[in-house]
Write a structure and sequence with these properties.
CATH topology of the largest domain: Na+/H+ antiporter like fold
Shape: elongated
Number of strands: 10
Distance between the termini: 112 Å
Helix content: 55-70%
Oligomer: single chain
Number of helices: 25
CATH architecture of the largest domain: Up-down Bundle
Largest sheet: 10 strands, mixed
Strand order of the largest sheet: 3-2-1-4-5-10-9-6-7-8
Structural class: alpha/beta
């Protein structure tokens, strides 16, 4: 037995240096820290930081803060700033950019002013030391941002203001740091600050101009999610690296990259889901554990001066941030819970604070002392711990209150459950149709997507069934990658149209999304028999779409609306879908319609979707869509709102739509939208039917001629 034990040599030494065991222990911490601390109602982020304290060299010395923590920690920090920019609602940000700037300036000036006074009067430091130390109070890191992601409130106004304010505050803090560091390196001159600001502005403009164009070009040519993910991460680090080259911290470059790629990565896309998953599962927890490993609690309790410095730093930092949030709330008459959320997000000290203290600690003054001494270094550690804890608790509490209030409002204003049916017969159009459904659906509702494969009775039905199952599996993968539940249905029926109609009734579908028919021969109709039969036999809203480029690369939505469309039963539904699509893609939606119809559209959008970037233009003559050819580019989506025969907004000119689309917009992405109507179809007629020369057309023509004649005469 002794010989066996002697042969077994575990060779365990602390701290552990073997990469395999380091990574294993980090994964164990990431797995179990949230589970254990959730029972104590402690936020997950605090669990990561406290775990870092325990396993770090100042705790039980289980792990050393080696190069892996520096690497993954930096990636995690960039990830936080990148996601903050990527998930920001750009339309909200444009409307609150002044508020964000005000919060950023207040969050910088107030802690800086109070801090300089406290450092000079209470701590007795010199002017340069006081300024640098006070700038540390002003900076903050979005440590608590993963909390708002988890609660799904990352597009709230207060969150956007806090995120935008963070960019302003950290930029000013890092400029102060660069100036003070330059002064002690004999690099300062009268033009130093101006040159630094100029370099940052030039680089920011270059990133904003080139990155979206590079991204749009890449996404149009490559649709593999792994390749897209690697491309996005490369862009993040390019932005961060370029910002470091001009003397600023890389977090600003990562944040700016997230902002400019915002429109190319919809919030509900599979790529966004992958970005959030990898960041929250690995990189961000790695960063938080690394922050915890820096904290040396033992040193603090052995040095009274360190405790005094830490106390002043904590009070000034928290007080300054609270005053800034309070003033912003009062100036713009915001809710108290929004102030709480802004304060929670903007008081955590970590990244910029560490950068400032390490730079100041490394500067040796002529008398041999350091610009920031060990008391400040130790006090900073306690400042990071306390502010991170306070930030996490306050953000968690505010997030819960906002979510609960949103649920109450949703219950009061509950609308009919909408559900989309997507037939997936063509694998070439499948991905774009699913992505269209993802951007027009209500993301707050579940189980509202159904993918359908219909097999009709024929000699090769077995082969068709296997093909349909593969299409359904592919549709399920796309939806699952976006973290959206998709119900798949495979059925046999007499024909494809009957299968779609029966499935729509069984699953209480409200909208059908299908691909535009590919015209195989000259005698073939524009829509094909499937779409024609579907339009004849259902009054549900039908979207017939053809995309020549990926949905996420669309830059504008052009919507042509016929007169009297506002009187259709499905008017508000399709306007809502256009607004959702515009919001998710971050693009402008341009409505062309009769003046009266534009008034209804504008009124509804201002009431229900006021953040939509909408433009309104009068379209006098619906008869000829040639008027729109100069407005629709290759990267635009043309939406033609049509109508079924017999409906209020139906016009005889709709019979020419297929010819006009084929002639004028053959090289454009097009959607023909048929609003929902009440009741059930009673006559199998559609505007594309060859029997379209009905008497009603002549009545329409006479009526239109009289209307134009009287209008001209008046």
């Amino acid at each position: 037995m002794e010989e066996l034990l002697n042969q077994i040599d575990f060779d365990i030494h602390f701290p552990i240096t073997d990469p395999t065991w380091i990574f294993f222990l980090v994964l164990v911490i990431i797995l179990f820290a949230p589970i254990l601390l959730e029972r104590l109602r402690i936020p997950h982020i605090i669990g990561m930081i406290l775990a870092g304290v325990v396993v770090g060299e100042h705790g039980f010395n289980i792990l050393a803060r080696d190069s892996s923590f520096e690497l993954f920690g930096k990636v995690g920090l960039y990830y936080i700033m990148f996601l903050a920019g990527l998930e920001m609602n750009m339309e909200d940000f444009k409307s609150i950019r002044v508020k964000a700037t005000v919060l950023g300036l207040l969050a910088f000036v107030i802690p800086l002013g109070i801090g300089i006074w406290a450092n000079l009067g209470l701590l007795g430091y010199g002017l340069m030391t006081s300024i640098l130390l006070a700038s540390m109070y002003a900076s903050h890191t979005l440590i608590a941002y993963p909390i708002v992601i988890r609660y799904g409130i990352n597009r709230q106004r207060a969150v956007s203001i806090a995120v935008g304010g963070t960019a302003v505050t950290d930029t000013l803090t890092l400029l102060v740091l660069a100036v003070i560091a330059g002064m002690h390196k004999d690099e300062i001159s009268d033009m130093f600050v101006l040159w630094m600001v100029l370099k940052v502005l030039i680089l920011s403009i270059a990133i904003m101009y080139t990155f979206p164009r590079i991204g749009r070009w890449f996404f149009r040519r490559y649709n593999d999610l792994v390749v897209q993910y690697i491309f996005v991460m490369a862009m993040v680090f390019m932005g961060a690296g370029l910002m470091e080259l001009v003397g600023m911290e890389g977090i600003l470059g990562a944040f700016l990259t997230g902002l400019v790629l915002n429109r190319l990565i919809p919030h509900v896309s599979p790529l966004m889901s992958h970005l959030e998953f990898v960041g929250n599962a690995l990189f961000i927890p790695y960063f938080l554990i690394g922050v915890g490993m820096l904290i040396n609690v033992n040193v603090l309790f052995g040095h009274l001066d360190s405790l005094k410095v830490a106390g002043v730093m904590i009070v000034v930092a928290l007080l300054g941030k609270w005053i800034a949030s309070w003033l912003t709330q009062k100036i713009y008459k915001m809710r108290a819970v929004e102030r709480e959320l802004m304060f929670g997000l903007s008081n955590a000290q970590a990244a910029a604070t560490l950068a400032a203290v390490l730079v100041g600690y490394g500067i040796i003054l002529p008398d041999g002392s350091r610009l920031l001494n060990e008391d400040v270094l130790n006090g900073t550690i306690l400042l990071i711990l306390v502010t991170c804890v306070v930030s996490s608790f306050i953000t968690e509490h505010a997030a819960k209150r906002i979510v609960m209030s949103d649920v109450e409002m949703k219950d009061e204003n509950a609308e009919k459950q909408e559900k989309f049916l997507i037939p997936v017969a063509n694998p070439g159009t499948l991905e774009n149709l699913i992505n269209l459904a993802l951007v027009v659906r209500d993301e707050k509702r579940f189980n509202n997507l159904v993918a359908l494969s219909v097999t009709n009775d024929s000699n090769d039905s077995v082969k068709q069934e296997m093909k349909g199952k593969r299409n359904l599996e592919r549709a399920g993968q796309i939806a699952a990658a976006a973290n959206v539940e998709l119900e798949t249905v495979s059925r046999f029926d007499l024909n494809i149209t009957a299968g779609i109609l029966h499935t729509a009734k069984e699953h209480q579908v409200t909208n059908i999304i299908i691909g535009l028919h590919y015209k195989a021969s000259i005698v073939d109709s524009f829509f094909g028999s499937l779409t024609e039969n579907l339009l004849k036999n259902t009054y549900l809203q039908v979207m017939v779409a053809r995309f020549l480029i990926p949905v996420n690369t669309l830059r504008r939505i052009i919507v042509a609306v016929p007169p009297k469309a506002e009187f259709e039963h499905g008017f508000m539904m399709w306007v809502t879908h256009m607004c959702r699509m515009s919001s998710q893609l971050g693009c402008r939606v341009h409505f062309y319609a009769h003046l009266q119809t534009l008034g209804y559209i504008r009124g509804y959008i201002l009431k229900k979707h006021k953040d939509t970037r909408a433009v309104y233009s009068e379209l006098d003559n619906w008869d000829d869509l040639l008027l729109l050819t100069g407005q629709v580019n290759f990267d635009h989506l043309l939406v033609l709102v049509s109508a079924r025969r017999g409906s209020i907004s139906y016009d005889s000119s709709f019979e020419r739509l297929p010819m006009q689309v084929s002639k004028y917009f053959n090289n454009n992405s097009v959607m023909l939208l048929y609003p929902g109507q009440k009741g059930d179809p009673v006559e199998s007629l559609s505007f594309a039917d060859p029997r379209g020369l009905a008497e009603t057309q002549y009545y329409d023509k006479v009526g239109n001629w009289l209307y134009k004649w009287f209008r001209k005469d008046s």
